[in-house]
Amino acid sequence: MPLFRAEELRMISFKIFKAAGATNEEAQLVSELLVKANLAGQDSHGVMRIPSYIRGIQRGELILGAEAEVVRETSFSALLNGNWGFGQVIGKKAMETAIEKAKRHTVSVVCAFNCNHVGRLSDYTMMAVKEDMIGIAAVNSNKIVAPYGGKERMLSTGPISYAFPTGKEALFILDISTSISAEGRVRVKLHKGEKLPHGWIINKNGNPSNDPKDLYEGGALLPIGGDAGYKGFGLGLAIDILSGILSRAGCAYEENKRGNGVFMEAINIESFLPIDKFKQEIDGLIRAMKNSKPQPGFNEILIPGEPEFRMEQMRLMDGIPLPERTWMEIVETAKKLGLDV
Amino acid sequence: MPLFRAEELRMISFKIFKAAGATNEEAQLVSELLVKANLAGQDSHGVMRIPSYIRGIQRGELILGAEAEVVRETSFSALLNGNWGFGQVIGKKAMETAIEKAKRHTVSVVCAFNCNHVGRLSDYTMMAVKEDMIGIAAVNSNKIVAPYGGKERMLSTGPISYAFPTGKEALFILDISTSISAEGRVRVKLHKGEKLPHGWIINKNGNPSNDPKDLYEGGALLPIGGDAGYKGFGLGLAIDILSGILSRAGCAYEENKRGNGVFMEAINIESFLPIDKFKQEIDGLIRAMKNSKPQPGFNEILIPGEPEFRMEQMRLMDGIPLPERTWMEIVETAKKLGLDV
């Protein structure tokens, strides 16, 4: 697999988006967040998205230079029409708006519709953390997850993220799908010719399957929970309502659903306790977890965000490996835009 | 098993709390919510709690007539010192406060500390729904759940509830623990002499076990997720932070932790879209799920809150069955207070 320095990938990505007609600001932000995902090891949200974003532009689904506009607003909330711009630009504006409002009014919710793929939710919840706030974000997208006890695709993977300010200890960034696996991980197993663990998917008849191919032949992902899959299903529905109905973006099951419905919230900690005290206590919590004894077969307890942080340290040193196929698709996309990368 | 009408159990419960010195308001509210839990089939949160609440009073852990006081407040948030009164009284005041604030300021968060067992979270999130708002609630309590990959008890079962207003369709009330099972369900299996499904608990050595006894001999419950247990662990930590640190109640891992740390939030839907439109869309979502095809082995798709609603209809007709042992403990508790129930 070819290896790339982060800076190099950012530059390639920037050039491609510029060649496709994006503004400097758009090309810069999108490239930064895609490469950040690769650094964290979340390659399914990394530069492999470039070709599909470019296709979106060419199909008119992604509008270059579009400005997100506020269509409904209070001092404590806002609803944004993203006008089908880059999801990253809309997501950033949504969380910036939430943070500004929470600074003066403790807690705020901002939703957005007509929004393309925003990428990793943790990029937005961490914006709140940098302002010493709690960040919460959830999105919905296309249907691919079956209800608990159901066999049809009715929900999206419904990711949710919580990020909290910490003191000296590791960052705390939770960013998870409410399905047992993201679709991207099933695709990776398919490409590697591997079987899936039990409980990830059902086939088109609603029976359990460990063959990744079955997902793409009418199957569905399962919600988290196994026996208690009604929990993952319930969380998935709650996320679909917050990010699909409250946001006006539409639910995952709806025909012609595309892009992300967006729900973002910021909570100003200082209204409850001094921020230093909060950080001290969250550090204590993290230390207690890290110092607790592992199960047989585990070396240590990892805090949400820790695996990604470690991967980032490694990839900053060693470079980012891209599968040959991903790289070729990027090169191809660049060529069509008249670039030689 | 003896069968009781809801009204009869409410009266017995009311008399017992009155005999123990509770105010009319306390005895009435606590009895109402305990019996409501029994009606819904959530017997672990029902009248079987009466003996332990009375012991709490006698030990001085539950202070009769205590008033929850606001110790920190903005127009958008409040922090309550529950002064160790009945959790139900404190929980109700917390959500009432959140609703009042959200009416004028769209979204609000209210936390509480020094709070006894609040019971079912859905009782509070449904208060918001009755005011056409979204209700969110989470609590922490004593540690009994292991971290993902860990073998020590470090987190509580960390329940979270989301409730949303609906139109003509069934209620939508999600109320779930972030452990694969609540402790009460393991205890039921123990009493019945049954084995546990795989993945519910580990024994004191951190190995998987299906013997409910192992939980009470130094074992721990597991977070939801199975292979992806880092998701349930992450959600459990987020809930511990919101309901333990933001609330000043302390985290589950801390020595001498008792009672519930409380986090409640209300969101005023009208700031985003007309409430009628919201209800129409959530009805559409519910209908789509109900009309989707079930998996082999399932008859239908159930919406969060639906199993409890059906049980309530049944028990209102047929009565509430109480295990002999539960009933005897209630009778015993009543006798010690000089009552003949």
What does this structure look like?
The structure is a homodimer of 341-residue chains. Chain A is an alpha+beta fold and 341 residues long. The first copy, chain A, folds into 3 domains: 92 residues, Orthogonal Bundle (Hypothetical Oxidoreductase Yiak, Chain: A, domain 1); 151 residues, Ribosomal Protein S8, Chain: A, domain 1; 41 residues, Wheat Germ Agglutinin (Isolectin 2), domain 1. Helix content of chain A is 41%, strand content 16%. The first copy, chain A, is built from 11 helices and 12 strands. A 7-stranded mixed beta sheet of chain A has the order 2-3-4-11-5-6-7. The longest helix of chain A is centred in the first third of the chain and has 19 residues. Chains A and B meet through strand 4, strand 7, helix 8 and helix 9 of A and strand 4, strand 7, helix 8 and helix 9 of B.
